[in-house]
Amino acid sequence: MVINIALIGGGSYCEEVLKMTTLAFLQDQVHSRIVAVADADENAPGARLARRWGLKVVSDYHALYDPKSGVDLFILLDPDPDLLHRILDGKPERLRVLAYSAFDLFWRAFKSRERLLQQRSEEIQTILNGIQDLILVFTPEQEIVDANEAFLKYMGYEKKDVIGKKCYEVYHQTDESCFLEEKGCPLKSVIQNQLPADTIRTRTGPGGKVHYMEVSIHPIWEKNGKLSRLIEISHDFTERRLQEEENRRRLEKMVDERTRQLQETHAKLLHQDKMASLGKLSASVVHEINNPIAGILNLILLMKRIMKEDNGARDPGLFERYLILMEAETRRVSRIISNLLTFSRQSKIELGAQDINQLIEKTLLINENLLKIHNVKVAPALDPDLPAVVGSADQLQQIFMNMISNAAEAMESKGGGVLTIKSWCDPRAKAIFVSFRDTGGGIAPAYHDKLFEPFYTTKTKGKGVGLGLSVVYGIIKNHNGSITVDSRPGHGATFTIQLPLPVENIASVTKVGG
User: Fold this and answer.
1) Residue of 330, 350, 434, 453 whose CA lies nearest to 394
2) pTM summary value
């Protein structure tokens, strides 16, 4: 039930009460409302304000005795004590009266509390305006009810441009709420979980500039558990974000540059190692070439002498045998020189299907004299059905060149030995394997992890610079393979290389093996 109130006395006191209570204040607080004002002076300040607000204004309070006026309570705003007695003597039984002294006491207490609340409100507003973070207060319906100065200044708005608007209208300049977006407004998380939420959001300012914000939303609940307000605290980290992106771009550029430098360095190491291996081969290749050339020269001289001494009685069959021997020796020299030039050439890396067995045999051919000099016998065990791998023939041959020459030098101190080269395929591992096992002095396990480091060597001074196995390791890694060593002092060393099979070869090998 709503109590209708009439204010008796329309002076400045009445005007003050009307302004501070408003039409809805008493109704909200005590289910009452002011409906009428009575004053003999129709131009009194309170009477004029009441008339402007559409309240009933009468010059004689007796007119409000009529039940049709709907008034239930008189509040006296005139301190005249006789007025109270006159009203009490003549009022209807149903009408209640609040004396001036009683209301004035209540009103002073109300104003005191109002001033305290206003003071606290001003203090809170001062605190909010002193905070540099952006603070926004809005309703569960996303309507903005307050914003601090930092928010207004940062976003380039005035308070009138913000209060009463929806948050998405201010933040994104759109009429569509982001509440229903799958990864949209954090308000949804706050309401569902009834807990504060933190997120990263982008905000668009009046000029269209995008800001990156760290956002925290804190709910305020009423005593009955109803969500009353939400306080949003935002911190701009746009500059930090842009700096992080710039640092990331700079770092990526540095990584790209460093990668390019490493690739160039690796290419130089490959070439240097190739030239070092080529130097080792020079002496043996000279002897290897000199032998057939000397044989060819001897046969030529012999044929010339026969032609000079036989007085026309020449044996065509003998000359034909000499010519066949000369042709074979010439082709042998051609193969040695061709393989040597192929190995020494600094060509562009070209990937293709490679026959590992064939590459090993070619490498053995150009190292034939080197192995003879070191008194090394080769025991090949190459799988004739070995499938091809994808790789660079030049670089794979460089691997085998290093492995063969290293094995020969490892057995030099023992006056020679046996180099066992084995190749096989393992369909389950989806790879082929090549192993090089020598009968040299072996390598202590403590040195195994260092063998593939650049410039590390177990050879005596002047025998090597420690690049060979490092280059081998780099080439194998570039081919997505691996290399392991199994060795101990006095029992030689076995280096095993694993190279992956192409997908089509895996299917073929699996089918054949199955």
Assistant:
1) 350
2) 0.39
